[in-house]
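Two entries, shown back to back:
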Amino acid sequence: MRLKLNRPVSQLILIAYIAITFGFRFVYEVQLTSHYWLSLVTGVIFLSLPYALIKVGFLNPGWFWFEKEFKEESSEAKA
């Protein structure tokens, strides 16, 4: 039995995670002005966690508010 969160909860978790990591990067990476490589590594690490959780199937975020537009475009392309 795999644990899988529903779509709205997954979206809220991802929005909160992105907001927290952006806040961290804007506040603390200002001090690392000459270490651009450290900024890149930090960004990759911060993005790898939600990517892994989505690939495993724990998070099921969808396309946030763009799902209706994607469904309309795909139905128009089929017609």
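entry 2 starts here
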Amino acid sequence: MISNKYNIYFFFFIYLVLHIYLIDNFPINFEFTFSEFSKFFKNYDYSVIDEYFLSQANTLAFPFLAGLISNILDTDNSLYITRFLSLLSYPFLFLGLLNFSKYYKFKIHLFLIVLFFLNPLIWVFGYRGTPDLISASIGFYGLSCLWTLEFKKRNFIYSILISLSIVLKPHCFIFGLLLFLHYLKEKKKNLFNKFLFLLSIIPLLVILFFLINYKLFGFFLYSNNYQDVLSFNFSDFFNNFLSYFGLLYLFLFPISLFFISYKRIFAKIVIYFIIYILGYFFLKLNSEMNLGSLTYLLGEKNLSGLVLCFALLGLFNLKNLILHEKNNSYQLIYNPLIITIIIYILILSFFRPVQRYLIVIIPIVYLAFFINYELKFKKRLIVHILILVFINYILTLNSSLNAKISSKIADYLIRNNINNETQLGPINAHANFIIKDKNKEKIYYLTSEIDETSKYEQKFHVSFFNIINKNLYLVKY
């Protein structure tokens, strides 16, 4: 059910062109760990695998797939391959939405598509060569194709897709869980039928992969380097739960505001101001629970206040989605979509918090909203879209500036043959792959902070019309 399809196609054309334009950027935020793995296929050097697990908690599935494709295409630039795989996420997400729209009878129109694809996490990870978005998108698509619970031979492919999404990113187990909960709800009077076979394929393939992983590398989910970091953390559970819930609905702006009633608005402003103050002073955003470069603009304390406000908004949103008048066909207590969202956030809250893990659940939250709320274009929503565009522009600009300055520094260090003698510091996450001899004594280091009296060997500078400036300095010990 698509309306204004030519407008949607034009939007996607512009959207994809902008992402393709960014595909040539220097790698950032450990993207190189995935693309550098392609070297394994040149001489099957197992030290490449060891290096991967030293810096990554992800499975080997994504770099292995990208490396295999690079080897087949006989290309050395496997960074393009990893980013192209991320770019493929968008067709999968769109087709998933289309399948669900047919099942639930909601219209796919331009405003819905714009809101969905301008989500900051969906936008940003589309030009990053990481498994985060592609795993979530093929899981979402596979789920949409199996949602009718029909047994067909071609549906084996969709079970395999969900399994692949979990293998790429174990957090995608949530798609298998959601399908199982949906199956229990719809087939409660006939649980043992042919579709159960399709359902059982998912855990069997996933278990098989991790058994092989254990046989080869001696661990199931995470290498020994990350066992402590990713272990259970009960003490921060409540703090992490509020942080995840608040960031989730902050990322879902503006739909997180759609259920707000303007009755007694003054009283609500006072309540949310109090909540903001509580978050400002008491909510701690641990680990990677932030908005990237936007955190610097907002300030960490201000972001904590906003996150707690949006956590409260999120709870009201879930309540309204359950009780919404369009939800007559749902049992109020047993709603697979809502249960899945809550279970996922609860599980994440026990571990080291990372904001990008929310990308898995975001399509499901949008789906729950689209099913129960008829989106209608209103002029004031243009402002909301412009805010999303601005946010994505700032995030993309920051990524591009980081890539540009990292590229400058890497070229300089390699050209002067001091790459192995330099402590990379601020660009370590972007350019660690230029260090070929990690045991060599460090003579230089990079820093962003230097006083006027200090001497430095080289200054590296990038800027955006001198409005946003990034400076790094190469200093001799």
